[in-house]
Every structure is written in C-alpha cells, then in structure tokens.
Amino acid sequence: MTDAVRQMRAPAMLAALEDDLRTCLAELSDDRYRGLAEMVRHHFGWDRAGGDQGGKRVRPLLTLLCASAAGGDWRQALPAASSVELIHNFTLIHDDVEDSSETRRGRPTVWSRWGVPQAVNTGDFIYAASHLACHRLLGLGVSAATAYAVQHRLDLACLSLTQGQHLDLAFERSESVQAEDYLEMISGKTAALIAAAAAAGAQTAGAGPDATDTFHRFGWNLGMAFQLLDDLLGIWGEPGETGKSSADDLRQGKKTYPVLLGLEASAEFAHLWAAGRSGPPEIVPLQRALEGCSADRRTRERAEAYTREAMRALEQTGPRPPGEAELEDLAQRLLQRNR
C-alpha cells in the first residue's frame, strides 16, 4: 500500500468520528439545555471557527484501526470509538477541576469559565453519553453479546482510570513515592483506556478472546510508553514544539518518572527538589542533576522496552492490511513525537 493511500483513511475515520460524536450528544439539541450544549461544544472545540476539533482523537482512532486490523469494517466500530473518546473527555474535564487547571489546549477549561459545579455536571453528562454510545453498536449489526463485552471492557477501564487518578492525587501529598509506584499509577490513569480502546476495536470485528487480549496487550504497552515519553517531553521538550514552557513539569513540581528516579538515585537532585518546594525551582540545575544520575536515559530505555513489547504484541495479532500498516504508522508516530 502506498503512503498516499495509507494517509487517506485516517482523515476519513476522523471525519466520521466527529459526526458520530455529535450524534451521541444529540440530546443537547433541546433549547432548555443551551448552557450545557455550550460547555460541551467549547470543550470539544466545536465552537471554533471552521468547527476545528479539540484534541488529536488518538484513542478512538486506535479503536477504528484495530477493528480494521482485526479484519472488520471500521465503520461498524464507530460507536465504540465514540464511547472511548467520550470517556477520555469526561476524565479531562474532571481532571481540570482536580488539578485546578485553568487552560487546556490554549483555551479556558470548562470549570474556569463556568464554575466547578457545572464542570462536574458536564463531565457526568459526557460519561453517561459514553454508555449510550455503545448501545448504538446493535444498530450496526454487532451482536448483543459483543456490545455487552465492549461496554464491560470500557467500564473496567473506567475503574482503572479512577484508581490511577486516586494514586496520582495521593502522590501529591506523599513523601515516599517510588518509581515503581508511578508505573502502577500510569497503568491505570493512562494505559488502561488505550488498552481498552485497542481491544474494543478488535472485539467489534469479531476477534476471539486470545486475539482480543493480544490487542489489549499492544494498547497497554503503547500507553505506558506514551506516558513515559510525555514525561521526558515535560522536562526536556522544546517549548516551540510542545506548546508548554520549558521544563514545565519541574516548575510545577510534578512527580513524574524521571523525577522519582532522580529522588531515588541522586542526593543532589533531592536537595534541589526540596529547595524548589519553598521557592522558585532552579530549572537548569534540576535538569543537569537528573541527567547526572541518568534519569533521562533510564526513562527512555523503559519507554523503549514498552515500545518493543507493543510492537511484538501487534505482530502477534496477525494484523490484516490495510489496517496493519496504518496501525503501525500511528504507533510509531505516537512514540517518536516531539510534542
């Protein structure tokens, strides 16, 4: 398959996904809920000029590509992909509240513009819509047993998400977080939904339990590598490429994987880190101390190990063209990105 053909399907998938997401949220058409509709449109980026979407829609695209790679019609998996994206977005709205984040993608967050109560309710609305989205699989010829199995998988991912978020919030106050604790946390907060997104796509294509589990393993390892790369970019990424201030994670005092490795291995970094909690942190000395104890190299090596496992699992699924090449392309773009 040529690169030109390979690149044609993702835009078609994303366009179909946007239409399906709007269908899932069609209940907002009632005039009584204009305010709720405004908040949802703002969060999804549908109120921008030209209707540009907010976010990359990586997780639902993974669902559609896995459905194709498992031998199915990706259009049949659209409701599952929408459910995945709705779940992701309800967590973003709630995370913004919990983290007191005033902006997302360069725009005011829902809570910062409309208040915490309305943001919580908007997140809850999107979560409920994610369940209803899966029901629409039945109208596309997916069996009731498969639709139930997809919904069950996504519900389990939601449990893992909330457990991972619990650990993340608890780590903020804990003085004894270990690097391995962090991996457990991101397994829930980040990898669980990416794994479920991949497996749900395979399920809608009629893949058997073993094949579905292998797609799940592919997505989980992809998610773990994705987050560790994000941690590297949060400290060493170029501001012009990441869209964030230089070393934003260090400035905000985030206990990411490189930071926890540094606290475990470097007395110099631990001293600088403690000093930064009582005043403006010294960014360059913190970066150098992390590099001095090889926290950057060790994080990259761990991410590369997860990447190898993801690619091994993908190969074991016996993916079918054209989904095979597109799925590999997507994975490689995610794991070689600079923002």
Q: How would you explain this protein's 3D organization?
A:
This protein has 339 residues and is mainly alpha-helical. The protein has one domain (3-335): Orthogonal Bundle (Farnesyl Diphosphate Synthase). The protein has 16 helices and 2 strands. The chain is globular and about 60 Å long.
Main features:
Farnesyl Diphosphate Synthase, 2 strands, mainly alpha, globular, 339 residues, disordered N terminus, 16 helices, two-stranded antiparallel ribbon
The percent range for strand residues is: under 5%
In CATH, the architecture is Orthogonal Bundle
* CATH class membership: Mainly Alpha
**What Rg do the Cα atoms give?**
20 Å
Instruction: Let me know the CATH homologous superfamily.
Output: Farnesyl Diphosphate Synthase
Report helical residue fraction.
over 70%
User: SSE string, helix = H, strand = E?
Assistant: HHHHEEHHHHHHHHHHHH
Shape label: globular
Taking pLDDT < 50 over at least 5 consecutive residues as the criterion, the unreliable ranges are 1-7
What is the number of helices? 16
Amino- and carboxy-terminal Cα gap: 28 Å
| Mean pLDDT over the residues | 91
CATH topology: Farnesyl Diphosphate Synthase
Number of domains: 1
Structural class designation: mainly alpha
According to DSSP, the number of beta strands is 2
Biggest sheet: strand arrangement: 1-2
For the sheet with most strands, the description reads: 2 strands, antiparallel
